[in-house]
């Protein structure tokens, strides 16, 4: 089965392809993604944004479309950056600018105040109809400075306690096994395979 990813993030497409492995699901970019009117992710929850995005972009393809909304939730910051994770430091900010802003917000916070959670919600739609939604999360701790060179987004400051390394210090295989996106996507593959 072919799944078209509604995203312009090359790191995300690479991760999804690796996660799909030999599952029988073929991941590809949604053709002309950048030319399609952008879906405004303005809902207050990851699930609403993911489902809305999948539904919106599925109207521009014959194949099934996969979309996700994911982000970092920091309880001591009232849940920020949350659904605004990608736009936390401004619409066109770089990963480094987002990380720098978050580290400034975290300055002086210690112990449990540095707890964080990555959340991912995957949604699949076909021709304007949402078929399935799955989600998962991973608990972690924010480091005081970036560590590692793998991954993208907030990976360099998200310490995964079980391995005592940041997501950016994990191999792709390790990250895919433990990550919020990996777990949510594997759930989605299970749902789709059972249909």
Verbal overview:
- The protein is α/β, with parallel strands linked by helices and 195 residues long.
- It contains five helices and seven strands; from the N terminus they run βαβαβαββββαα.
- The chain has helices at residues 10-20, 46-58, 95-106, 172-178, 180-193, and strands at 2-5, 26-29, 64-73, 115-126, 129-142, 158-160, 165-166.
- It has a seven-stranded mixed beta sheet with strand order 2-1-3-4-5-6-7.
- Helix 1 packs across helix 5 (180-193).
The ordered string of helix (H) and strand (E) elements is: EHEHEHEEEEHH
CATH T-level fold name: Maf protein
Percent helix, as a range, is 25-40%
SS elements, strand count: 7
Oligomer: single chain
- What is the correct CATH architecture? Alpha-Beta Complex
Q: Poorly predicted ranges (pLDDT <50, ≥5 residues)?
A: none
What is the overall shape?
A: globular
Mean pLDDT: 94
List the SSEs and their pairings.
Layout: E1 2-5, H1 10-20, E2 26-29, H2 46-58, E3 64-73, H3 95-106, E4 115-126, E5 129-142, E6 158-160, E7 165-166, H4 172-178, H5 180-193
Parallel strand pairs: 1-2, 1-3
Antiparallel strand pairs: 3-4, 4-5, 5-6, 6-7
What distinguishing features does this structure have?
7 strands; Maf protein; 25% strand; 5 helices; 195 residues; seven-stranded mixed sheet; alpha/beta
